[in-house]
Structures are given as C-alpha cells and as structure tokens.
Amino acid sequence: VTDSRRAEEAVRTSEELLRTVLHALPVAVWILDEEGQVLSRNPAGSKIWGEDPAPGGLKEIARYKGWWPDTGKRLKSREWSAFRAIRKGATVLGEVVDIESLDGRRKTISNSAVPLHSANGEIRGAIILAEDITERASVQKALRYSNTLLESSRKELRTLTAHLDLEVEEERRQIAQELHDQLGQSLIASKIALNMLGMGKPEHDRLRDQIGEIINLIDQTIQSVKRIALGLRPFVLDHLGLVAAIESEMHKFEERTGISWVSYLPQTESVQLAPVTSMSLFRIFEEALSNIQKHARATQVIVRLESGAGRLLLEVHDNGKGIDDARILAPDSLGISGMRERVGRLGGDLCIETNDCGGTSVIVSLPLEAGRHGQTQTNTD
After folding, report:
1. Which positions ≥6 away from 255 have C-beta within 8 Å?
2. Burial of 122 by CB count in 10 Å (0-12 exposed, 13-18 middle, 19+ buried)?
3. What does the domain layout of the chain look like in residue ranges?
4. CA gap 25, 67 in Å, rounded
5. Measured distance CA(273)–CA(375) in Å, rounded
6. How far is the C-alpha of 251 from the C-alpha of 266, rounded, in Å?
7. Which pairing describes strands 300-308 and 260-264: parallel, antiparallel, or unpaired?
C-alpha cells in the first residue's frame, strides 16, 4: 500500500510539474491522444486561436482555417501538422502557416508536431507546438518588399547608366569627328593660306614675322585639336580594334610618364567583340593606367589580353606600392566604382588586389558570348 501511495504521489508530482512547465512556456503546447483529443495544454494556445481547441479532435480539424503563405492555398485537413504527426508519424518542425483565429483575426504561426510512440512503436498521440510570429513575419514581408524595390531601383539605375554611357560615347564620337573634320581642316586651310601669303614676300619684315608666329600658333592649335579629339574618342579603337588601341595607348602612356611596359596581346583581333564591349574594356584600361600614373609610383606595367574557356581576360599589373582594401571599397573611389559598374553590365568580374611583386593587379574577366554580342546585365555582384 505504501509503495502504491508513493507511486500515486510521484505521478501527481510529475503531472503538477508538467502543468507548471506548460503554463510557463511562451509558445502554445498541446498534448494529443491518438484521436487528436487534447490531454494537456497551456494558455498560450488560447491566445493564438482565440479559444480552446474543439473536443472533436482530428474530426473537427476542418473548422480551423489556415493557408500556405507561399501559394495562398488553404490547408486541407490532412495537411495540418497534427494530422500528419498522428496519422502518418511525420515530424514537422517550424512550418509557417497563415491562420484565421476563431475570433476572426489573421495571424502567422510557426507550427511543429512530433508523434508520440508507445513501447511497441505504435503512435499514441502527438505534441503540438505553435508560436505566433505575426509581427516577425510582417517585418520580414516588409523587408522583402523593400529589398525588391531596392533591387528594382538598382536595375533601373544600371540601365539608365548604361544608356547614358552610350549617349556620352556617341556624343564624344561626334564631337571628335567634327573637331577632326571641321576645325582641323579649317586650321590646315588657314595655315596653307598664310604660307602662300608669306611666299608673296611681304614688304615689311614685321608682317612676315607676324605671319610666321600665326603659323606656329596654328600648328600648336592643330596638335591640341588632335589631342582633344583622340582623348574624346580613340580613332584607333574604332578603326583597328581593341588590341591596336591598347598598344597605341601604352606608347602614349610611356611618353607621358616614363613608365615602361610589356604586353602580351594577340597579334590580330582573334576575338571579335561588339563595339560596346571594346569601348568598355578600353575605358577600364584607361582608368587602370590613370590610377597607376596618379598613385602607384611604378616603373613598369604589364598588360595581358587573352581568351580561353569561354572567358575573355584583360589584366593590368604594375610594380608600384600596391593598394589596400579600404581604398578598393571606399565609396569615394569613383574610378574603381566606374570600372566595377562597366564590368558588371557586361556580366563579368573585376578583381583588384596587391600582387606578388607588391604592386597592383587589375583583372577583368568577361563571358565571351556576352562580349561578342555586347549583352549587358542588370543584375550584380
């Protein structure tokens, strides 16, 4: 009798402890039997559904309204986690469901269910847990919407930037062409006219000297016009291609800076690139050289252009002082940002890093297919 009383007291103590724990839990907990009848529960469940579960067990589960968040389809009776745990022995963890509580309020819950087995393996019920995550889900939904708007704005900005770049390049081409064809030809004609006037042996030495000075000034102006026109639009790129334009630019760079260079370039244009791709690569190359001139303190530059495995690689290496990560990522590094934007529009990758020699390496990798057709991308990286 004493042992029986002790056993009964232990059971009561265990049940009381279970009720205390369940009552203290912030999540809803139901312990169900094999028919879905509630054996034990805590108050958090009433807060979620608005009242205690119906006594009908699984037979009454259809009265509960729930929808899958991703599709908006209403849950069928057999899709509720309690039904699946008891009837199929399935374990469900953290399944998100939109519900309408019995008092008509819409909520989002995280639902879990674990089947309970007897000693011989039969399903004797289930433990159901539910957490009201309505506020969290609303914040996440708003965040996803904001991210969608932000990504859409980024795509629009990239598209607009690409369009503006094309417009700027076209305007540069037209201005350079007019400088060369109109102003350049007019200056040459003026020089010829003055030369002829000088050949007429003017009576006054002073006039002859003035003509000579004007001719010299015109020569300087002609050279300035050529330099401005070439700076606006590289004619070599338009007529001879990217390889020739890179070689031409390197010669001018050496004359301007005294920095020697080594190139590993195809002898001919082995890869046919769309004009927009050639121009983008050339502008990136120009920016890389500009950074070397301004910051690197280098004495040599190595340039490599090659294709293979469906990719086109442009590499510019110098033996200068290198570059730190902070400058690469700095928002005010507009030149680097422009390089990254141009590469991104072509679906490529840009790597800027300190190389083994201590200098800086700029490596551009583009998919050849996009390079041939000039396809631009609006997504990142």
Report:
1. none
2. exposed
3. 2-132, 135-233, 236-381
4. 26
5. 11
6. 17
7. parallel
Residues constituting the chain = 381
**Mean per-residue pLDDT, 114-138:** 91
360 against 376, higher pLDDT? 360
pLDDT at 56: 67
The DSSP 8-state label assigned to residue 124 in this structure reads E
CATH architecture of the domain with residue range 236-381 = 2-Layer Sandwich (3.30)
Could you report the per-residue pLDDT of 238-290, keeping only the tens digit for each?
Answer: 788 899 999 999 999 999 999 999 999 887 666 678 888 888 899 899 999 99
> Which CATH fold topology does 2-132 show?
Beta-Lactamase (3.30.450)
Terminus-to-terminus CA distance in the chain, angstroms? 76
> Is it true that 2-132 and 236-381 share their CATH fold?
no
- pLDDT level of residue 127 (50, 70, 90 thresholds): very high
What distance in Å separates the CA atoms of residue 301 and residue 260, rounded to the nearest whole number? 6
Amino acid sitting at position 63: R
Who has greater pLDDT, 80 or 174? 80
- For residue 128, pLDDT beyond 60: yes
Rounded distance, CA 186 to CA 225, Å? 11
228 three-class SS: helix
25 within 8 A of 42, measured Cβ to Cβ: yes
Separation of alpha carbons 249 and 230, rounded Å: 10
The per-residue pLDDT for 18 is 67
Of residues 372 and 34, more confidence is placed in 34
